[in-house]
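Pilot study result, target chain (150 residues):
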Amino acid sequence: MAGGSYLPHGLFPGHTRAGPTSGDLVRHACTVASVISIDADSPVPPYEQVRTTLAQQMADRTLPVGTRLPTVRALAADLGIAVNTVARAYRELEAAGLVETRGRAGTFVSAAGNQRLALARDAAAQYAETARALGIGRAEALEIVSAALR
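Predicted structure:
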């Protein structure tokens, strides 16, 4: 990964504003840039590497609802990739409802994305409970889910 940590423009330790504290914004913005690495040798396109990493961080709540993502330009510069690559990843995340763009305020992790994930987790928990009640083992239950997702 090229570059170092990213601090959102205008933020520095101790700076406050409405919403999450600046420490939260700085910590989460640094987390975004520090855990994304682009594998140039991967058959997976760079935009997809960015998109899947961010989506995973949202799913595991490393990036909680309301977190401001780095600007497209800043993240692209930090990762050493084209601006359009990050822009495409952000567009796809927005289309999936995982982030929302608030004009000049930036791009933020959306509550709708977490609601979708919560519903999916609930459905998975119900399926697991049903599979156990039917005496279906873990391997077979996972195989059924994999087949259903194809």
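One observation from the pilot: The radius of gyration is 18 Å. A full batch analysis is planned for the follow-on phase.
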